[in-house]
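Work Package 3 (structural annotation) set out to generate three-dimensional models for the target panel prioritized at the project kickoff. During this period the team completed the workflow that converts sequence records into discrete structure tokens, so that structures can be stored uniformly alongside our sequence database. As a representative example, we reproduce one entry of 1000 residues exactly as it appears in the project archive.
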Amino acid sequence: MKNTKPKVRLWSVLTGLTAILTVAAIVGNIIANQYATTLNVALNASTYKIIHGENTGDTEYFKKGFASDEEREAYEAELCATVEAEGAALLKNENNALPLASGAKVSLFGHGSVDLMYGGTGSGSVDTSKAPNLKQALEAQGITINQTLWDLYSSDSMMSKYSRLTPASISDTLEANTQYAVNEAPWSALSSAESSFAEYGDAAIVVLSRSGGEGADLPSGENGTSDSWISGQEGDGNYLALSAEEIELLQNLKALKDNGTFKKIVVLINSSNAIELDFLNPEICGEDYGIDAAMWIGDVGQTGINGVGQLLSGAVTPSGSLVDTYLYDNMANPAMYNFYTQAYPNAAEYDLLTEGADVQGMYSVYQEGIYLGYRYFETRYEDVVMGTAKAGDYNWATTVAYPFGYGDSYTTFAYSNFNVTESDDVFTVTLKVTNTGKTFSGKETVQIYFQSPYTAYDKANGIEKAAAELCGFAKTDVLAPGASEDVTVTVPKSELRTYDANNAKTYIVDAGDYYFTAATDSHNAVNNILAAKGYTVENTNGRMTENGDESLVWKWTNDTLDTTTFSTSATGTAITNLFDESDPNKSSDAPGSVTWMSRSDWTGTIPTAPAQLTANETLAASLAFTQYDGSEANSVEMPTLGAKNGLTLASMIGKSFDDPEWDTLLDQLTYSEMVNTITLGFHNTAAAASIGKTATKDENGPQGLTAALTGGASAMCYTSEDVMAATFNVDLINEVGRCIGEDCLAMGYSGLYGPGINMHRTAYSGRNFEYYSEDPFVAGTICAAEVQGIQSKGVYVYLKHVALNDSETSRRGVNTWLNEQTAREIYLEVADKAITDGGAWSVMTGFNRWGATWCGANANLLTGFLRGELGMRGMCITDFSGSSQYMDLVDGLIAGSDIWDSPMPKIHTTKAANYENDAYIVTQMRNAMHHILYTVVNSNAMNGWASTDTLKTITPWWQTAIYALIAVLAVLTILCAWQLSKALKAKKSMVDTAPAADQK
């Protein structure tokens, strides 16, 4: 019999469920719409369509250079290997241990041998799932690998127990650096493979790898007692020293070498952070590990390990040169004393935050001044050699393992016919380079250094001078044994300028003697200059490490102090102090005073503890969020909005930034379009229908295009930036840039968050892999070449992070204190070269503050320096702003920031809405749009657009899907409710009509 009992319970459940799902979908839609920009980028969802008008010509303004993706990818795989092969630096090669003999049978040791560092973590991370490994790279060169040992290191049990540890996320906390660990396998774990060693005993190759990443600096631990003061570091261990397990590994390999099991021991240093190299020198470390050869390879990128295979086999001769000074003890770097940020001791008294996304009460002092890297080690060395007063107790030979610029070869080179000629604007250096070896062909890196006089004027006015500064370089072609090449290097006279922040308050050229030299590295350069001054090992009682070559030195004398030649920039802007507020000794917010390190008194000014500063009311007031008070609201006329002038962005292609037609176009923008574009700049610039502006896609890319953080596809991962710089090959890195541009063009990107241009201030910065060097000249020159290549394909670069984002610990909002000479000569020099020589369109500012002012709201930095002095016409984007309040919208707009790297509109749009009737702020928004639109109109985003084309906004597919889902769920809820209502009525009817006896 059919069941006719009403299904009240069923329809009650279904009605409740569909109602809940409907509400959930509505709430989800609200949340999704708040993050619409991020979702559009991640899902590659279109928000507009082009309405084509008459197209009268070719609109492919930037053309692809490869016939297919396969051709591009194959070419780039070889290019990456070439960069590694030219950038890796041979440090040690006793008894011609390298290259390995043809058909050599070798054993690979260390977790890094099976788990290489290809790149760092965070915004620079890339997909290397298909990258070749060291075994494959060596086998491709005919070298046989110990499979038993390889399988052991690669086994699940070994990988789970003994794998490198790196902070898992972008954490920005003091504690993040404690998450780094070497975690190397102990010797006992290799016992099962020991019987295989003899058969593969031509060489034991040890890979020492260290990771680095965004949001966490590396721990330096307690090196004796000298760094016990480092906040948060006690007992964490020195990540850049050998671990106990690595020492044990080397000890056992030495024993096996002594008994004949292994013929040689080769070490590969797979790290962009400078590992302490005491273990390579028995006299320093007190133990001989029997290491025959060592090579620095940095982070190798996707296919760079193939270049390492070529180097080890001798298919390619090493020609890379170090771009950092490598030490026996990293604590010998004076910058270490102020590297990790610290809290003002009275921060709580002024309610200054010391943690979270809006840090106010943490600070860092660049107390070492201009003496970064070799500028310190070589300058103090020269003063010791010359017997300068107050040089102190300093021994270069027991401090520096390998100097900046060092790189050995399988062959030898000689320099001759050194000559320098002067013209109005440049010095032209020429010399002959000859391969004096008998077996190997190879390239040579020629480095040109100069020395500026350190005068009484300098000492009186607080100007610091280094004993040597790199001012030019060149890479020869491959030279066969006996072959020569004439090399020419041009040095602009502007390289001789120094910044006088206290008297002339501009760039000057001192009176006195200047020395130029061709050298193999920074130490060789100083020894050459000392030789020209008459110093020898003999007449300095051995203070000089080796005699220099005075035939490679030329002296130029400047008769008078010049305070005018370089006091005006190429844009015609007068150059004067812009950053006094970042100097505690001059700032109106002064939290105390700082003794800057000076060569006039090494012993009295070298830090022995962090610089101590104390917060005060003035500083606290300057650190408060949102400084603009609305008082300028009526100081200008409200700009025109929403005009119907009939222009499109495409109609501005080829027009100058100052073309008056820009005003006509900008008048068409609506207020909401400006808000959306400026405040929602997370990996994109928004479409604007009023002017036919397409949306653009921007993506991370210090090592190549990577969408690792946004979930999209990535392209070729090139080597870390320090390896690029270590090639000293401008043409090669320009080609890398071109290919990165090709990747962007092929994958639909118009903007790249990179290259990275901060400095290797110490070896412990988590992001050294995505910055070039400790030296601003090589960093800036290589960066300019890479930028030119990238932008040749219509991809605008955002140089990041301008400036002083040289550490990761508490980076959000940290107060960075330094003097003007240091800022200009070291930390802004890379941006200077990248913009003026490379033509970089745009920059990304940092999380940090200059003194008390967030760099994205520092008008002197953005408007005064970048736009005024350097003439940059592109846009300034913030680093990821998210919910950070200190990265303030209106303060940033006033200063010159244009677009916020934020997926979160609720904060920024609320603030923008508050200023809709503020003519001053609306004018700043209009100026920002000018920079944004000028950048985009000169990019590959305009490919396919003619001046007659217009744009119509559309709802992206995922929003349509959500609306459809809501509609379906709503209909189902109504239907279920209707069925429930029917069931309830039916039940009531059955009760009402039932016999009385049944109702009892």
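The radius of gyration is 31 Å.
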